[in-house]
Design a protein that fits this description.
The protein has one domain (about 5-329): TIM Barrel (Alpha-Beta Barrel), CATH 3.20.20.70. The protein contains 11 helices and 13 strands. A hairpin with a 4-residue loop joins β10 and β11 (about 210-215). By secondary structure, it is α/β, with parallel strands linked by helices. Helices cover about 40% and strands about 15% of the residues.
């Protein structure tokens, strides 16, 4: 029978399916269920510095309001510095204890230089096996150039790498002008993996209430192809593992990403739809395909359809697009 064990971020994992950072990791029984179902690793839901800052500002306001009733009141409250992070850090420690062998990866989304390094260090100290930097930021400043944004990203990663001893992955958005250049720069700085891609929350409008509606819609298999293209373009050109995220809903989807060079795939939406135990079905589908094709290990076929290995090296670029247009004319 085919063997699914592989490595991810330099960590040995039992299979290529990794549970992406999401609310499923908010319960210890879900973490145990994921491990029992054959998840290779699990990324714990993100620590968001922005949310912590908002909670602390609210708490400080509440304390100031309450202290007006009598002068001594403020001395009865504990310091609020980093109060919002303690609960998350304690949860990460509990999560680490809940999983017996499955690697656990902490996830961090920060907004300040001190937040990135400080929280990265604290998360690493919980005993997690790795750290994923969730680079989720919508740019709104008309004066900031792309070069400035990318330089800040590189500096952030460099600073985090000096603070932690565990392997670090970076979860990128697909909106950089040159994703290969950004990937190469991060690779040169020593990141262990690149997760492609982060899916931004897209606001909608309720026209009856004339108000914003925020909802995190689940991904669909149709969204698989963006990561597929860039995993294929980057495979063999950088040392960091390439991890495909968004749109992986079946064993066939996972096989596609492995064929173009992914070290692993991340799943979340499919697990909300089909329950956590669906991981075992995905693994079964991958194994069945491998047995049918005569592959013993993932390494036997990983990257066979990347840009470096396919006969038509332009298949993932514009030439294929032009060909399709000519066929439809």
């Amino acid at each position: 029978m085919a063997e699914l064990s592989t490595t991810y971020m330099g960590l040995p994992i039992s299979g290529p399916v990794v549970v992406a950072a999401c609310s499923l990791s908010g319960r210890l029984d879900n973490i145990r269920r994921a491990e029992a179902a054959g998840a290779g690793a699990l990324v714990i839901k993100s620590l968001f510095e922005e949310q912590i800052m908002a909670e602390e500002l609210k708490l400080e306001h509440d304390l100031e309001t309450g202290s007006e009733s009598y002068r001594e009141a403020v001395t009865y409250f504990p310091p609020v510095e980093h109060a919002g992070a303690r609960e998350h850090l304690m949860w990460v420690e509990k999560a680490r204890a809940a999983a017996s062998n499955m690697p656990l990866i902490a996830s961090l989304n920060a907004v300040t230089p001190a937040g990135w390094t400080g929280y990265a260090r604290q998360l690493a100290e919980t005993g997690v096996d790795g750290l994923e930097l969730n680079v989720y930021a919508v740019q709104t400043d008309l004066q900031r150039t792309a070069a400035e944004i990318e330089t800040q990203l590189y500096q952030t990663v460099e600073n985090v790498l000096t603070e932690v001893d565990c392997p670090v992955a970076v979860k990128l958005s697909p909106y950089y002008t040159s994703i290969p250049n950004v990937a190469g720069e991060l690779d040169r700085r020593g990141v262990a993996a690149l997760v492609l891609f982060n899916r931004f929350l897209q606001p909608d409008i309720d026209i009856e209430d004339q108000a914003l509606r925020n909802a995190m819609d689940l991904s669909s298999p149709d969204q698989l192809r963006l990561a597929l293209r860039y995993v294929a373009l980057l495979h063999g050109k950088i040392a960091a593992d390439l991890v495909a995220a968004t749109g992986v809903h079946s064993g066939a989807d996972a096989v596609k990403q492995l064929l173009v060079g992914a070290a692993a795939v991340q799943m979340a939406s499919a697990l909300y739809i089909n329950e956590i135990e669906y991981i075992s079905e995905v693994n079964r589908q991958i194994t069945e395909w491998m047995d049918r094709k005569g592959y013993d290990t993932l390494a036997d076929f990983r990257g066979r359809l990347s840009q470096e290995d396919v006969p038509d090296r332009f298949a993932f670029e514009r030439a294929q697009y032009v060909e399709l247009l000519l066929q439809q004319a």
